[in-house]
Amino acid sequence: MTQETIDRPGVAIIGYGTAGVNALIALRMAGYEGPVHVFSDTGILPYSPILTSYYAGGEKSYEECFPWTAEELDELRPTVHADCPVTRLNVGEHLVTTPQGDFPYEKCVIATGATPACWGFPGVEGEEDYQPLVLRSMDDAQRLKDALEDSACRRVLVSGASMVALKTLEACLNHGKDVTLVGINPHVLDFNALPEAAERFERGLLAKGVKLRLSQSIAQVRRAASGELEVTFANGDVDVFDAISVSHGMKSNLDFVQQGTLEIDRALVVDGFMRTSDPDVYAAGDVAQGTELISGEKRIVGIWKNAALQGQCAGTAIAAELAGKEPPASCALRGSIATNTIAVRGTLFISAGTMELTPQRQVEVRETDDMTVVYIFEESGDERRLVGFNLVSDTDEEGSRAYDTGAMLTLRIEAGLSRPDQL
Ligand SMILES: Cc1cc2nc3c(=O)[nH]c(=O)nc-3n(C[C@H](O)[C@H](O)[C@H](O)COP(=O)(O)OP(=O)(O)OC[C@H]3O[C@@H](n4cnc5c(N)ncnc54)[C@H](O)[C@@H]3O)c2cc1C
Predict the structure, then answer these.
(1) Which of 13, 47, 107, 419 is 20 to 30 A (C-alpha) from 83?
(2) What percent of the chain has pLDDT above 70?
(3) Which of 192, 226, 250 is the last residue of a domain?
(4) Rounded to whole angstroms, how far apart are CA atoms 98 and 95?
(5) What confidence tens digit (pLDDT) does each residue in 72-101 have?
(6) 247 pocket-lining for ligand 1 (C-beta < 6 Å)
(7) What residue owns the CA closest to ligand 1's atom 7?
């Protein structure tokens, strides 16, 4: 490294999850030798939010939730500012503000992920400080695990029917809890599944003893004299629980970005190189809105692989720019599609692509004894291509026909998108 390189402010990466780590890896792989300052609001190594439910449910150890070792990360030579949340990004002056001081940057990657939102949860009457169980961080997972390991906790209410809610529900079942799921939509899996698939998944949940309260919401919660949480549902039903978990969606962590300084829709709008509206600020992962390939719109595709690819893209592009070159076209991301896989104690759900129905799209359902597959085809002229699917299987054995079918259908959607006329 030359003295000139050392003296430059270098790159700031805000957030040390998969998007941040992959930006760091890509910077070094592309030959960038200058300083990289990583700002993390935690004091622990980067973890995988995917694995938090398995930790809470007793299927994985704490250590298994960390995809990278300290040694592997040290080899990338970052200057990590731990327990150092960024409180302000001054885009004009190229400054990152933290409780430990201000840090200048030449290029910045925002990779701060998202936080569980409790929109619509009324709280517990008279308990201002009450926090429902949520799931994203290792602290959240520890809190959920502690609650589920408490033998006094017998009945759990899971509010929400998203993938995160269902993963929480599985952790509860693993601990032998009596679980009720309440969701405002008529079916579980929210916008990820069409009714034909969701219904089979619901049958799987019911067979495992889960009680479903669909098309319902929590109207009121109060603490009963027994210490239990007495929940009144919107239809007037009342039931008691020992714990409540809320999974009502995620909110991108962008409070430190001042209004009007970067283009924000639901998250930071980025181009194919992950550049935001400011040429020196990039964004990657759950905090970025890149191109969703089927709609062609800028959307958050909140999955691990997308966060990793976006981080890599940002790191490669920045390394090129700091070397005085154009970012290589080969590192640009055309976009991504949503994919989901979840298994709740033997009932498997796999999906990819879109579930949005338009006049050009047809739904086909194929059902066998152990599997339902819902296909969404789009017609345009003589062309008919697969744009989405749901698969629900009553078994989730690794290497089974269901996993093979899911992988094959995902490839088929991707192949349809890579034809020259789809570019
Ligand atoms: C329970 C659960 C299950 C999931 N299951 C799957 C799955 O099966 N498959 C899949 O593909 N995806 C899954 N996901 C989604 C996947 O985990 C995310 O898409 C991915 O982790 C996003 O990575 P990221 O780097 O953008 O965010 P994160 O991994 O959240 O990393 C962001 C980091 O930035 C930190 N940060 C936030 N604000 C600041 C600040 N101001 N200053 C400094 N640091 C800050 C955060 O604490 C965090 O450490 C799941 C998510 C959850 C919660």
Answers:
(1) 107
(2) 97
(3) 250
(4) 10
(5) 999 999 999 999 999 999 999 999 999 999
(6) no
(7) 50
